[in-house]
Amino acid sequence: MWALKHTMRTISELGLEILQIMLRKFQTCDPQAAQTFYQIYYLETMQHIFAVVAECSHTSGLTAHSQILANLFVIVEQGLIKVPLASEVQDPSQNLLYVQQFMANLLKTAFPHLQDNQIKVIIEGFVTLDQDIAGFKEHLRDFLVQIREATGNDTADLYLEDREQTLKRAAEEKRKVQMSVPGILNPHEIPEDMQD
Which residue ranges does the record assign to the Exportin-1 C-terminal domain (predicted)? Predict the structure, then answer.
C-alpha cells in the first residue's frame, strides 16, 4: 500500500498496477485464500484507495483508482466475498450493506462538510456505476471536485490524465500526417521500414 501513497508518479502508478493485477488474481485463485484476503484486507484496501485519491498531492492515476474502486464494489456486489467482512456482519450476504455503511462513515469523518444526502448519492453512484468504468470515473471525479471546491483546492489536476491522453493522440495523428507527406520529416526521423 505504501507505493500507492508515494509522491513519485511512476512508483504510485506501479503500485496501482500491481494492486489491480493482485485483485484480478484473487478472483480466480484458491477460494479459501481469496476469502481470507478479503476478510483481512478488503476494507483496508478500500480505505487506502479513497484516502490516496482524495489527497490533493496525488494528481495522477484517476483511471487506475477508478478501476480498482469499481472492481472492489463489483466484488462485494456480486457476492464474491463469502465471509463476513467484519464482526458486526453475521451473514456474508449483508457485506454490500456493510460496505456502504462503512464508506458513509468514512466519508462523514473525512469530509464533515458533506451532507448526508450527498454521501448517500455518492455511495449509490459507486455501486450503480461499478461496471461502467467511464461513468464510475466521472462520478469519482465529480466527488473529488465537490470536496476540493469546499476546501478551496485546485481541481485542474483532476483532468490532467485525460489531457495527457488527448495530447498524446494529437501528437500521434500529427506524426501520421507528417509521415504521409514526402519531405516534411528528415530522413533520420522516418522509421527504417518506411524508407525505400
Answer: 1-152
pLDDT tens track for 57-78: 555 678 888 999 999 999 999 9
Q: What is the DSSP letter of 152?
A: T
Instruction: State the pLDDT confidence band at 169, using cuts at 50, 70 and 90.
Output: confident
What is the structure's pLDDT at 96?
A: 94
DSSP 3-63: TTT-SSHHHHHHHHHHHHHHHHHHTTS-HHHHHHHHHHHHHHHHHHHHHHHH-TT--S-HH
The three three-digit cell numbers of residue 180, written as one number:
504521409
Residue at 7: amino acid letter: T
The torsion angles phi and psi of 183, rounded to 5 degrees, stand at 95, -10
| Four-point Cα dihedral 82, 42, 16, 106, nearest 10 | 140
